[in-house]
Amino acid sequence: MSEGVVTAGRLVAIIGNPNVGKTTLFNRLAGRSQKTSNFPGTTQEAHVARVSTSAGELTLVDLPGIYGLRLDTSESGIARGVLEGSIAPEGFRAAPADAVLLVLDATNLLRNLSLAGEALRAGTPTVVALTMLDDARRRGIEVNIEVLSRRLGCEVVAVDAKRGEIGNGLLGRLTMAATRGTKEAVGDDLHAWAEEVYAEAAAARSGRSDDDRITDRLDSAFTHPLLGVIVFATVMTGLFWAIFRLATYPMDWIDALFAAMGGWVADLLPEGALQEMLVDGVIAGVGATVIFLPQIVLLFFLLSLLEHSGYLARAAFVIDRLLRPFGLPGHSFVPLLSGHACALPGIMAARAVPDPRERLATVLVLPFMSCTARIPVYVLLTTLLFPGKPGLQALAFAGCYGLGIVAGLLSALIARRTILRGPARPMALELPSYRLPSLGYALKTAAARGWTFLRKAGTVILAMSIVLWWLGTYPQSGPSPAAEELRATAATVDGPRGEELTEEADRLDSAYRAERTALGRIGGVVQPVFEPIGADRKLTIGILASFAAREVFVSTMAVQILGGEDADLEAGGVREALATAERDDGSPIFTRATSWSMLVFFVLAMQCLPTLAVTAREAGGVKWALLQLGWMTGLAYALALIVYQSIRAAGIA
Amino acid sequence: MPLGDWQFWAVSLAGLAAVILLVRALRPTKPKNQRATLTINRETRR
Question: What residues contact residue A496 under an 8 Å CB cut-off, 6+ apart?
Fold first, then answer.
């Protein structure tokens, strides 16, 4: 085998600028064989895969996207280290890369060639994968692959990783790749070399393409300092309004379906504990959560359409200007946006924030972003606050997201001015062309999110509903002495007064029995803590249960209310039962003051154990997780207290 | 507690199984091959 030829079992480093399709290509090449680890001493994720080719085995390492190998960033340092053999992903031997898979974006070829020149200078055997050729053609850029290959001195393969076409035998070519003296050909002036190669290998039509002109016009509005923010706010409010409007019908169907299921099971099974557990525990608890599935699916469907259209990148640009005054870089936008799905991937994505202080600030405030687990709680409470008014519901719903974002930003500002003081780094952002979003991709994303939600409803929420029903049923006690006395009196009184006394006796009895169950006793002990924010015994139980997972709140309330025989599942569905639920003293649970107070509490409180665990790991210590828990929950309690007491003081019923 | 009622034991057993499931589901574990959505440009990569 000649010098420079890659042999089987060798290390192949995949490098390229950010957003050139590098990771998509890696995923296509690696399939399911990939493993995720860290580069030692860093929080930078390393994706590694061993793949077999007819010529032997290759170890592929997907490196972080970089603009240059000599830049002073952690990503560039890692890429340099892997190429030179001074660093390797955990669990792999550190050795110089045997070959490089250089991913170049045809739409930005000139800029990409600077990195290509740096990589080729190292003299490592290289294969170039050229992506986005279709986009380039649409924008009037024709790339001559043969000329490019000759000038770079290595094989150039056109790939379309997204559609599954990864070039004819790309892996095979990697195993046989060899340098052909490009090291000398690049020269000292990298920029001049890149321009020379680009002029020879790529022919761009004169003038701007239609795509470019449309992009320019739209960008002048969408990235405008004022208009951009107004457009962003309008788009987001419209999004939430559409979710509330369109989801109403499937939500009604699901509600009716679970009500029918409850009735069917009640008819099928004889009366007893088993029937009660299934109807008032399992069906009520799971049904109360699954009812929010249409809204979750719609949210992610519409967000995916926006993302694919290219608008979200403009939103990132607009938001960058807004983030800066709070001590966060534009890099934080993607983690913060991911946090709106779930805090866990958001915190993981914060690894892309280069500055350690800015990264830590992002991790600490990220759980303020409203994750999907909060959606069922928001929907329940906003619906209770504004029944039959989807416009106001959407506004309140969007307000919850806004409150979380504002609280997160202000917390970041405080952290950056105190415990995480330090200079800010500038940010570079690439804006893609606008395009028609892919309906298929949006449907897939929405289906994946919906399935995750359903899986949780089928496991955690199902289990929690059973446990809560048991704790809310046992130990069973005898009838209330006060209720017995009242019933005796009612028996001696005729007419409506007698009926009133009997009803009062039933209510007393129900409260007496509920207070003596295990759940009632726990609620009784903790309730004084939450009483100032409007929580009665049942709401206290709901809050406590939601520290395991926020969405459990809705099912917990449903199980307590239906299990306590305060309502009938068949009569009007779970939502009706929750809306008319009563406290032990007969007053409504969800008054205006209580609903607003609970809404504020759930927007701001830290109620997710897995997030705390990931924060501790990513931030580098349990103390940061404890700080997150204390700060968020303390702030939630304080603001909920202010809201509840203010509404009550204003005399609003 | 209605110890003589077989249904009590059935629902208690279900409750115990639910507790075990909850502990297992909520116990923090190291994510394996978990990929965040890192890109808002061109397409989502997971």
Answer: none
Residue by residue, what is the 3-state secondary structure of A137-201?
A: HHCCEEECHHHHHHHHCCEEEECECCCCECCCCHHHHHHHCCCCCHHHHCCCCHHHHHHHHHHHH
Q: Please choose, from the candidates A243, A592, A542, the residue with its C-alpha nearest in 3D space to the C-alpha of residue A397.
A: A243
Look at residue A603 in the predicted model and tell me its pLDDT. 95
CB-nearest to A432 from B17, B22, B42 is B42
- The mean pLDDT of A19-24, rounded to a whole number, is 76
For residue range B8-17, list pLDDT tens digits in order. 999 999 999 9
Domain ranges for chain B = 1-46
Nearest CA in chain B to A434: B42
Answer whether B36 sits within 8 Å of A35, measured CB to CB: no
Q: What integer is the mean pLDDT of A38-60?
A: 68
Q: How far apart are the first and last CA of chain A?
A: 85
pTM for this prediction: 0.62
- Chain A residues with beta carbon closer than 8 angstroms to that of B36: 335, 338, 345-346, 348-349
Write out chain A residues lying below 8 Å of B45, CB-based: 23-24, 27
Q: Which of B3, B6, B40 would best serve as a mutation to test chain A binding (most A beta carbons within 10 A)? A: B40
User: Please, what's the b/e burial string for B15-32 (b: 16 or more CB within 10 A of its CB; e: otherwise)?
Assistant: beebeebbeebeeeeeee
ipTM of the complex: 0.71
Distance, CA of A78 to CA of B12 (rounded, Å): 55
Separation between Cα atoms, residue A636 and residue A638, nearest integer Å: 6
Q: How far is B13 from chain A (nearest CA, A)?
A: 10
Asked if A27 is an interface residue toward chain B (Cβ–Cβ < 8 A), one would say yes
CATH architecture entry for A10-207: 3-Layer(aba) Sandwich (3.40)
ω into A18 cis (within 30 of 0)? no
A435-481 residue pLDDT tens: 788 788 788 878 887 887 787 777 877 887 888 889 888 888 888 78
What are the residue ranges of CATH 3.40.50.300 in chain A? 10-207
Query: Mean pLDDT in chain A?
Result: 80
Within an 8 Å CB–CB cutoff, is residue A555 touching chain B?
Answer: no
Type of residue numbered A535: A
- Could you say which of A23, A345, A464 has the minimum Cβ distance to residue B45? A23
Residue A376 makes CB contacts below 8 A (sequence gap 6+) with: A288, A289, A291, A292, A551, A553, A554
B27, closest residue in chain A (CA to CA): A610
Question: A549–B26: do the CB atoms touch at under 8 Å?
Answer: yes
Average pLDDT on A112-134 reads: 87
Q: Tokens at residue A77, please?
A: 């340092």
Express as a percent the part of chain A with pLDDT over 70: 85
Is the minimum CB–CB distance between A613 and chain B shorter than 8 Å?
Answer: yes
Task: Please identify among residues 483-522 of chain A the ones whose CB lies closer than 8 Å to any CB of chain B.
Answer: none
